[in-house]
Recover the amino acids of this structure.
């Protein structure tokens, strides 16, 4: 198996194609990257900026270039002995007519070859969804869209379509008869009933009426194509038929202002295998599984073996040809049976590097029975981030937050409230479907026969709300002890929430724990197991929407902790826990990925590094933030007795400004516009005053006005005058956190992943801000310059980089130097053990140190932290005069002579190693001893 030494995530899209990637390969290789880590490159919806809205997984995305461009890129990668880690999306595809498989289902219904391809509940409890799939893709209520003439029937060579702006939905063949026979008598009189073309048209109608009932499979497809071809031929060859069809189109499309004129189109729409609706309907009534709450992404039944093979055909070809040397699985928790999926995948791809996007709660373990190399790195991100947060300042920060915002609701209560909100609003339709399934099951037993639909849904909602992890992995093989633990916890907590529904909860527990199955029929067992599997598919989206996309935009005690896979109620991570985590990872998952930024993270890695500095200086932070509130009080907007923004959003804004304010300032930049876009996304995700489902223009406009006023570049803006000195101080200390973070990521057990562009300062907001274009020309120029100067006078280079550290060259320098060492001593980093090192002396809590050994080589990593207590602002945390008597305690087996891989300088030890000696020239050290 090829294990990457270091990966580099590239976001492919129309503005960054295969050719562009080829042009930066030499740069990536020089940087120390061994594997390109690619966003989805398969055919996506036109104009997709991310590639996760796939319409055809067996075609390369033409917007990224042609097949020759791709072949040229992969050839160059192989030539350089680099690898390609491909992000794949087995869970869902775009709900779009560019998705030809879905279009086939929408046109042919149960006669489609792909009828079972998508996760659609065709036998839904609601009559208006039975035999049809909801299409919640309209921007307004169906009736209004119809009578405004926004929904239109169109006829082209491929047949009749229902058009709504860019959306084009097919029309089932049966409906052609209804369309053609409208006013057919008039055509007969005009053309003549014995005219060959009129007779031909009657023949077409006869074929249409007999297609559905008499013909199946390929013959049916051929007959429909034949019928459509005949009709198109008539349309083009006979002007009278042409005029007849065009007139029918006009009649069916109605006349705006005349509601009755739309009856024909309404009637035709009611016959289709889909039901067009207002997009908001999808939150409360839905009969297909979505990716989270995104109506435009429909889930695929990849658990079906034929779907699995079709969905992965091109992927498997790429693996067989050696073009893909690794796969990363997007949203593994969305799948019906992740364990079985991974087993099948492993059987097909053999010894190919395999990781999954999996969010683990703190101290939750990745299923050890999964045949993978590990996760894509969110748990590492949160452990690493947490170790730069002063845990002993938690109480102070809680009090500061409460005093500023007047909010006293504990995190645990917010957790339940926000997940409960998603259950009631955004995922109500999904919960409703699950409750209906539960009701059907309960009716099969005397114990559950009296349970009402309402009672079961309330009990089910309580279980979903309190569920402590993204999901369990119960399947046909049964359940494991970890699954049992989480289920038992959820039932116990649910009993506290709804104590009057104990019997319903006991029944749900019996189902989830697979109890009392020996008395059931095979069909009953299958139905119960299906309920368990569907519930597991729902707990993940609920956690993601309730916590990641709601709670993290409400609870703002310290923003750096509000991250994907994080728990902001846990104020940091102890050094002992960080070391223990790394030690266990080296044993269990030595080749998993280590990330500090991804396309999904809530803020840039260096934004977090800055905000963490606040945890060291709570008194100063409170003093500053209270002053800013006072200075900006007159800038708030008053809307009907409420001040905008509220204190919580204001607190969020000040932390965001400290974390993301650019080193070069904001004049003549797009910073304010980007910040305003982010602010709107944040307050909508919070769902307090405004939301995606119900935007409040007053609140949003007021917040934007406040931001403009706060950041106005004028002599009269007292806020900026007070803000900038404190920001400068925090940003400067944040630089050293960033450098330590970079060193630790590249040297800890696992494969370091660098998100595109983050070898410079990463001060971005959440997506789409973190997907902006990267200036690779500048990075190439800097890397070349740094490498040349390092050969002649590395200490002078280091001194220059320290003096100009705000320009980000120092981060690129450190990244390149440590990646070079990683390549040179690969076995140490790939297979070496992990030993935490004891730090003693004055600043024993201000340095993270560990050793890794393999064979005769040992490396020591030293990364400073909490530097506000070590050096004054503008001072460099280097040298013995700073670190005084701070030493590392080394074992007797360790070498006594070391070389720092960052500065190339020698360092000596004798049972202990002086931190000041190791950090003599640079504020981080990677010592190599042999």
């Amino acid at each position: 198996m090829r294990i990457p030494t270091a990966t580099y995530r590239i976001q492919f899209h129309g503005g960054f194609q295969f050719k562009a990637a080829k042009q930066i390969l030499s740069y990536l290789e020089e940087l120390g990257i061994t594997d390109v880590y690619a966003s989805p490159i398969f055919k996506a919806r036109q104009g997709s900026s991310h590639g996760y809205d796939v319409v055809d997984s067996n075609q390369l995305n033409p917007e990224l270039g042609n097949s020759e461009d791709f072949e040229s890129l992969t050839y160059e990668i192989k030539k350089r002995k680099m690898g390609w880690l491909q992000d794949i999306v087995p869970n869902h595809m775009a709900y779009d007519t560019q998705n030809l498989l879905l279009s086939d289902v929408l046109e042919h219904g149960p006669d489609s070859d792909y009828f079972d391809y998508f996760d659609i509940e065709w036998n839904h409890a609601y009559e208006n969804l039975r035999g049809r799939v909801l299409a919640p893709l309209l921007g307004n209520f169906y009736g209004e869209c119809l009578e405004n003439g926004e929904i239109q029937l169109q006829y082209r060579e491929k047949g009749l379509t229902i058009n709504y702006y860019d959306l084009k939905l097919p029309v089932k063949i049966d409906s052609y008869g209804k369309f053609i026979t409208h006013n057919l008598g008039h055509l007969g009189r005009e053309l003549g009933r014995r005219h060959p073309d009129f007779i031909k048209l009657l023949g077409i109608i006869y074929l249409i009426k007999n297609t559905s009932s008499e013909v199946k499979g390929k013959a049916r497809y051929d007959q429909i194509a034949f019928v459509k071809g005949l009709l198109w031929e008539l349309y083009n060859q006979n002007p009278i038929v042409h005029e007849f069809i065009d007139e029918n189109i006009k009649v069916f499309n109605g006349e705006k202002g005349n509601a009755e004129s739309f009856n024909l189109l309404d009637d035709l729409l009611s016959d289709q295998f889909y039901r067009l609706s207002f997009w908001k309907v999808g939150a409360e009534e839905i009969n297909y599984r979505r990716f989270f709450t995104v109506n435009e992404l429909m889930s695929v039944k990849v658990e079906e073996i034929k779907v699995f093979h079709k969905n992965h055909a091109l992927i498997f070809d790429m693996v067989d040809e050696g073009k893909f040397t690794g796969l990363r699985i997007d949203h593994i928790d969305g799948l019906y049976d992740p364990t079985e999926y991974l087993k099948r995948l492993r059987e097909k791809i053999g010894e190919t590097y395999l990781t999954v996007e999996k969010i683990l709660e703190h101290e939750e373990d990745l299923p050890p029975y999964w045949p993978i190399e590990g996760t894509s790195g969110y748990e590492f991100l949160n452990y690493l981030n947490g170790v730069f947060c002063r845990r002993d300042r938690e109480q102070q920060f809680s009090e500061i937050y409460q005093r500023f915002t007047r909010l006293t609701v504990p995190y645990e209560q917010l957790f339940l409230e926000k997940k409960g909100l998603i259950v009631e609003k955004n995922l109500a339709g999904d919960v409703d479907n699950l409750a209906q399934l539960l009701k059907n099951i309960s009716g099969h037993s005397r114990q559950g026969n009296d349970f009402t639909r309402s009672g079961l849904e309330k009990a089910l909602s309580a279980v979903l709300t309190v569920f402590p992890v993204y999901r369990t992995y119960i399947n046909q093989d049964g359940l494991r002890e970890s699954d049992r633990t989480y289920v038992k916890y959820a039932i116990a907590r649910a009993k506290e929430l709804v104590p009057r529904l104990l019997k319903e909860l006991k029944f749900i527990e019996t189902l989830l724990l697979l109890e009392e199955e020996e008395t059931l029929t095979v069909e009953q067992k299958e139905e119960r197991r299906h309920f368990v599997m569907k519930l597991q598919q729902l707990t993940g989206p609920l956690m993601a929407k309730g916590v990641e996309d709601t709670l993290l935009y409400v609870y703002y005690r310290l923003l750096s902790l509000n991250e994907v896979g994080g728990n902001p109620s846990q104020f940091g991570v102890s050094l002992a826990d960080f070391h223990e985590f790394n030690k266990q990872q080296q044993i269990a998952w030595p080749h998993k990925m280590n990330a500090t930024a991804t396309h999904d993270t809530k803020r840039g890695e260096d934004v977090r590094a800055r905000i963490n500095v606040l945890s060291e200086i709570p008194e100063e932070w409170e003093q500053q933030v209270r002053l800013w509130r006072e200075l900006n009080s007159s800038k708030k907007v008053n809307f009907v007795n409420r001040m905008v923004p509220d204190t919580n959003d204001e607190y969020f804004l000040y932390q965001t400004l400290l974390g993301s304010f650019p080193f070069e300032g904001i004049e003549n930049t797009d910073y304010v516009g980007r910040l305003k876009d982010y602010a709107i996304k944040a307050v909508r995700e919070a769902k307090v005053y405004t939301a995606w489902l119900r935007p409040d223009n007053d609140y949003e406009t007021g917040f934007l006005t406040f931001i403009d006023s706060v950041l106005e570049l004028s002599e009269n803006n007292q806020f900026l005058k007070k803000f900038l000195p404190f920001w400068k101080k925090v940003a400067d200390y944040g630089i050293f956190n960033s450098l330590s973070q970079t060193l630790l990521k590249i040297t800890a057990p696992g494969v370091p992943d660098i998100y595109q562009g983050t070898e410079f300062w990463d001060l971005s907001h959440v997506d789409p801000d973190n997907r902006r274009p990267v200036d690779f020309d500048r990075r190439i120029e800097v890397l070349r310059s740094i490498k040349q100067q390092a050969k002649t006078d590395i200490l002078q280079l280091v001194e220059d980089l320290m003096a100009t550290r705000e320009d980000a060259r120092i981060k690129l320098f450190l990244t390149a130097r440590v990646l070079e060492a990683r390549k040179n001593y690969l076995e140490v980093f790939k297979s070496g053990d992990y030993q935490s090192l004891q730090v003693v002396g004055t600043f024993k809590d201000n340095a993270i140190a560990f050793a890794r050994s393999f064979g005769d080589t040992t490396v020591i990593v030293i990364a400073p932290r909490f530097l506000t207590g070590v050096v004054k602002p503008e001072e460099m945390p280097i040298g013995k005069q700073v670190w005084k008597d701070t030493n590392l305690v080394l074992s007797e087996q360790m070498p006594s002579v070391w070389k720092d891989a960052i500065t190339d300088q020698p360092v000596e030890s004798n049972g202990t190693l002086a931190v000041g000696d190791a950090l003599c020239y640079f504020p981080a050290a990677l010592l190599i001893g042999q």
